[in-house]
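We were asked to recover a plausible sequence for a given structure. The inputs and outputs are reproduced exactly as logged, with field labels preserved.

PROBLEM: sequence recovery
POSITIONS: 224
GIVEN STRUCTURE:
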């Protein structure tokens, strides 16, 4: 059963550096009135770490990357070769009232269904193969997606606020151009009974302020 009645899909054609990408996601979480699925790329060699991640571990693991700290949880993600998406749902949606593990499971189950249409074997992890590794794709936790051999394919971080739910996800199966757009459409169809394209214009002044006050600050990146 679909998670949403209606959803908008934003194929964000503009590749952005890490701080701007995270600022746009936060803006979506604060402002959207309907669920929105954003699929986007990165400008430059970026990695992201979760809200409680250690910047020292990030720099030791992948010293060649620039790092940005997410507003959500989760491990270290190398965005040079992933398929990145964000789902923002406003507070009135039922999924916002679910426990974190359940909303995580339902979103990843929809993603698994979308991947199945590509012929990709993706299944929900039981969590028994957790390694504790800081690198996201070396640590399959419960309800991540793994392949038939137990290799992690997808992970995510979530944050709940009074505005709703923010789910920031990464898939270790890069896909660009028309194929990437088709994957995004399949995921939108798996998530919602009805969906349509959108192309919003994030307010530049607000995005710049979020970068200046949070995501672009060295103190934010190095807070742990």
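RECOVERED SEQUENCE:
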């Amino acid at each position: 059963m679909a998670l949403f009645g209606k959803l908008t899909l934003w194929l964000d054609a503009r590749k952005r550096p890490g701080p701007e990408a995270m600022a746009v996601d936060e803006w979506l979480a604060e402002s959207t009135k309907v669920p929105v699925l954003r699929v986007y790329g990165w400008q430059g060699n970026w990695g992201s770490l979760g809200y409680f991640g250690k910047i020292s571990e990030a720099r030791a693991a992948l010293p060649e990357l620039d790092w940005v700290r997410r507003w959500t949880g989760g491990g270290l993600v190398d965005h040079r070769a992933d398929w990145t998406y964000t789902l923002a749902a406003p507070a009135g949606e039922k999924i916002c009232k679910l426990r974190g593990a359940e909303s995580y499971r339902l979103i990843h189950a929809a993603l698994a269904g979308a991947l199945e249409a590509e012929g990709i074997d993706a299944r929900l992890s039981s969590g028994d193969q957790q390694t504790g590794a800081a690198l996201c794709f070396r640590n399959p936790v419960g309800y991540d997606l793994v392949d038939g051999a137990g290799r992690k394919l997808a992970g995510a971080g979530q944050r709940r606020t009074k505005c709703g739910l923010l789910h920031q996800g990464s898939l270790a199966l890069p896909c660009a151009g028309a194929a990437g757009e088709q994957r995004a459409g399949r995921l939108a169809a798996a998530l919602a009974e009805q969906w349509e394209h959108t192309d919003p214009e994030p307010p530049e002044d607000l995005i710049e302020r979020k970068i200046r006050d949070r995501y672009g600050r060295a103190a934010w990146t190095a807070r742990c």
